[in-house]
Inverse folding.
């Protein structure tokens, strides 16, 4: 299995001197596409304006075909519309000039179906030159994508649907069981905070964010970076703000369309109140982890917690519900972060410190207050 470091090396080389085969390989690594899917992908299947990639066909052999039969374009048995991560959307937009018509295939830039070997020739040549891994193939890129998403806490249902594998999720579970964790999910609430859903509740990957201010924008960017949400909208009492769907008090009427909701408000007490209201109403309250955050697999976190970009959390750390771990904050080994607390950007929480519920911590008070104060004292949110 490719490591994060190896994936970074591959991404770097794929984004230099870009040509069509590199675009195809980039989609395998960053969206988990199968070789047959990316081979069949054409310019017309990618909507840059909406940020959606449409899987409609695959390159393969029809029913009863043999290895000697030519590869052809056939309808996918797992058609789906995939939201693209912002980084992928930008990469495609930057390189769309490689394709001169809507019928151009992404892997070749030509209007005739490319052979599978184009991808493997690229990856083999890259691997021989840079000695990245023992072997490098499109399937290894897909596996790396799956591993990264599971380690980021994406729930199995959503991931299998994204991969076109929801009819046989056991295949993913069996191969990647070591990376599956039920207690830190980025698109479902933690198992201890699970709320029973109505039987007819839809399974849309839509996220409602409560609060459209500065923290709301951070949450939106994190959700977009995770790349699994179909739609993202805001609720805020200031309905003139961009992207606001309705006021906070009307959240329940949007439950069917937006079964997932997240409170993005810096006030700790209000964040607690609104999160509890969401759970009581039947919303799924996720844990969100930015892909650039480095979180030990042993870390536990409660519903409504966000790990912002470049956050680092060491092993044996316990994190409560509704916690904000702001960008580039660091939580060292054995620390405990209480419910609905807020660790500000760049703050370092020392080894073994216990931050009680409702505390707002920055590097000033984190350095001034010793461990015993964290254990015994309390600050207002």
């Amino acid at each position: 299995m490719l490591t994060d470091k190896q994936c970074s090396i591959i991404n770097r080389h794929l984004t230099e001197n870009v040509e069509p085969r590199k675009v195809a390989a980039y989609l395998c690594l960053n969206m988990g596409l199968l070789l047959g899917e990316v081979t069949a992908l054409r310019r017309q299947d990618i909507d840059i304006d909406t940020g959606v990639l449409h899987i409609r066909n695959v390159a393969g052999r029809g029913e009863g075909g043999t290895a000697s039969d030519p590869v052809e374009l056939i309808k996918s048995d797992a058609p789906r519309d995939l939201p693209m991560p912002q980084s992928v959307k930008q990469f495609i937009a930057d390189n769309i000039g490689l394709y001169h018509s809507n019928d151009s295939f992404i892997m070749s830039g030509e209007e005739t179906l490319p052979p599978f070997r184009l991808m493997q020739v690229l990856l083999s040549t890259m691997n021989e030159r840079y000695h990245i891994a023992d072997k490098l193939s499109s399937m290894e890129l897909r596996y790396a994508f799956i591993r990264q998403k599971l380690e980021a806490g994406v729930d199995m249902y959503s991931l299998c649907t994204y991969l076109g594998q929801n009819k046989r999720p056991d295949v993913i579970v069996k191969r990647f069981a070591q990376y599956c964790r039920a207690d830190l999910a980025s698109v479902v609430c933690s198992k201890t905070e699970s709320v029973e859903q109505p039987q007819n509740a839809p399974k849309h990957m839509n996220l409602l964010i409560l609060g459209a201010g500065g923290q709301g924008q951070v949450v939106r960017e994190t959700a977009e970076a995770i790349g699994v949400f179909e739609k993202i909208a805001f609720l805020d009492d200031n309905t003139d703000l961009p992207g606001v769907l309705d006021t906070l008090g009307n959240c329940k009427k949007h439950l069917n369309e937006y079964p997932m909701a997240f409170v993005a408000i810096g006030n700790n007490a209000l964040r607690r109140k609104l999160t509890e209201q969401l759970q009581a109403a039947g919303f799924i309250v996720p844990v969100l982890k930015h892909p650039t955050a480095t979180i030990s697999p042993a870390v536990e976190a409660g519903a409504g917690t966000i790990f912002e970009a470049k956050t680092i959390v060491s092993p044996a750390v316990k994190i409560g519900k509704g916690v904000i771990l702001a960008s580039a904050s660091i939580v060292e080994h054995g620390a405990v972060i209480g419910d609905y607390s807020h660790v500000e950007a760049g703050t370092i929480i020392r080894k073994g410190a216990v931050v009680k519920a409702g505390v707002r911590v920055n590097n000033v008070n984190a350095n001034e207050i010793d461990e015993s104060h964290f254990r015994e004292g309390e600050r207002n949110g």
Summary: Residues 117-130 form the longest helix (14 residues).
